[in-house]
Amino acid sequence: MDENTYRILDKINNPDDLRKTEENELPELCHELREFIIDALSNNPGHFASSLGAIELTVALHYVFNTPYDRIVWDVGHQAYAHKILTGRKDRFCTNRKLGGLRPFPSPEESEYDSFTCGHASNSISVALGMAVASALKHEKRHIVAVIGDGAMSGGLAFEGLNNASGTPNNLLIILNDNNMAIDRSVGGMKEYLINLNTGTGYNRIRQKLWKTMKSLGLLNEKHKNSIIRFNNSLKSIIANQQNIFEGLNIRYFGPINGHDVTNMVKVLNDIKDMEGPKLLHLHTIKGKGFKPAEEESTIWHAPGKFDKETGKRIVCADNDTPPLYQDVFGNTLLELAGQNDKIIGITPAMPTGCSMSIMMKELPDRVFDVGIAEGHAVTFSGGLAKEGMMPFCNIYSSFAQRAYDNIIHDIAISKLNVAICLDRAGLVGEDGPTHHGAFDMAALRCIPNLTIASPYDAHELRNLMYTAQLPDKGPFVIRYPRGRCQQKDWRCAFEEIPTGKGRMIKDGSELAILSIGPVGYTVEQILEKDTQGKIALYDMRFVKPLDAGMLRSIAGKFDKIITIEDGVIEGGMGSAVLEYLADNGFDHIRVKRMGLPDSFVEHGPASDLHKICHIDKDSIIRTIKELISIDL
């Protein structure tokens, strides 16, 4: 479909326009939306397969409900591109995920149709329940809808929301978008449960007839909502000889129905939207629907990058001279270490491909556990393994690890358990924006006793830190590393133990010391190649906890000007730790300039642009150096 040939979509600029569309035209609109998204994302990459799978659902929701007065709460937001296009952002969709353009996920700061911030999974039911209760307390006739995928339903917060919804007066509608996928294929008992769950149309037809008959006889009254729900659930149990988990929680269950039949979804939503009490509509959808390559390999097509929309071939720059991704160094190193240490176990919350634990999973499937979208459980599960003598490597994206904070303290740190917590995507991640930047891990974790917290300078250091973490009695060992490619093409190296809490000098100098942690130090090292007079020293701290007190004392005795630089928040990070040491040890006369991420949420965009915005790029580092000493760089 060529540009400007969308017969129906071109007439729709907002949901009011959509609701003027004839119902029999909705299937064609869905086809046009699908073609629009395929065309746009082939040139401007984004979350592809999820959005293709939720098009009919999105159209039906905005067609039936009076948005934005009625609230739609999206979970994660990977599937919300059709929502953006239908809610006044069609003409700007070409800017999606670009610096200054549309945000990667729904955000109330961008549109009144985005009812709540999205990015992390499993929060939609709790958020929507809060909105539903608030609307009831304000005597508003406002519909509240939570949209959640089967992968996100494995998160503990989703179950907490369900449990509360079952015991709190509300009229919440939960849409369960079940495609048997998260990013990788869904796992666990909830997946199997949803696959097996089946409610026939015959049951729904019988239930409605009996309900209406008994209501007309005065045997049931809408005032007694719990009685009605229990009646429905009892009838279902009799007919199907089973009771599902939702009905067991006194939540009316409808479905499963075909999530790609937009006309039937409109009918069903109209039938159930005004029913009192909490209810759940279960949809079966296909991730990547309408684009065959994405239907067949939806994990790859979750965020495929640029591709040829005609052939379905992804545009991948194959270059054998390109250094590998940090995640691939992690994955290959983990398999190598596991071959040497049979106690090593891999744990990931639903990201085996993203963190490259899939490499070990393929070779040693019995020693890798994908626990689903359940970061807190991943950490506590690792604690149980460690208590019984295993050596877990628990890999969680840095921003997702925020959800396991208590588990790290209570279930790992207090007991000094030998668990390696590997935080992928630390620092600025680029186009996924503020919900995904790994900005807070150092500041959040360094106050916790018994933790060792390290960040590798390069791929060799990552391998050696992983090797060190699995040695006996190292205790809880956190390793944070960034998204993107490392510096070395020859990334394999012999393993060496790195002494805990010991940094290293990369370059000596006479006037100024720069203290870095993580790969940002490599950027500094490149700058200092022009320091022909040897004025600037560079130290790789390696560890933010424990700090290398001996190295810091030596630095403080030689330099009266120090720059600290890190790719985490400046408030409470490595620079703060250095300031604390200097103040506590009588070196408060030293001038210290801290560089890091600001005390604000960083927007989305290419990582190189974000480094400039946060003033940790090459030019900013050079300017800061020149503020402190006279030098030609």
Keywords:
five-stranded parallel β-sheet; seven-stranded mixed β-sheet; alpha/beta; globular; 633 residues
Structural class: alpha/beta
Total beta-strand segments: 17
* Integer-rounded radius of gyration: 27 Å
Quote the distance from N terminus to C terminus.
Answer: 53 Å
Number of helices: 25
| Average of the residue pLDDT scores | 91
Overall shape: it is globular
Helix content: 25-40%
Report on this model:
The protein is an alpha/beta fold and 633 residues long. 38% of the residues lie in helices and 15% in strands. The chain is built from 25 helices and 17 strands. A seven-stranded mixed sheet has the order 7-6-8-9-11-10-15, sandwiched between helices. It has a five-stranded parallel sheet with strand order 1-2-3-5-4, sandwiched between helices. Helix 15 (358-363) links the parallel strand 6 (344-348) and strand 7. Helix 2 (26-43) packs across helix 4 and helix 14 (326-340) runs parallel beside helix 20. The radius of gyration is 27 Å and the shape is globular.
Topology (elements, then pairings):
Blueprint: H1 15-19, H2 26-43, H3 49-53, H4 55-64, E1 71-74, H5 81-89, H6 124-137, E2 144-149, H7 156-167, E3 173-178, H8 189-196, H9 201-216, H10 225-240, H11 245-248, E4 252-258, H12 262-272, E5 279-284, H13 292-296, H14 326-340, E6 344-348, H15 358-363, E7 368-370, H16 375-387, E8 391-397, H17 398-401, H18 405-413, E9 420-426, H19 441-445, E10 452-454, H20 459-469, E11 477-482, E12 504-507, E13 512-516, H21 520-527, E14 536-540, E15 543-545, H22 549-558, E16 561-569, H23 574-584, E17 591-597, H24 607-613, H25 618-628
Parallel strand pairs: 1-2, 2-3, 3-5, 4-5, 6-7, 6-8, 8-9, 9-11, 10-11, 13-14, 13-16, 16-17
Antiparallel strand pairs: 10-15, 12-14
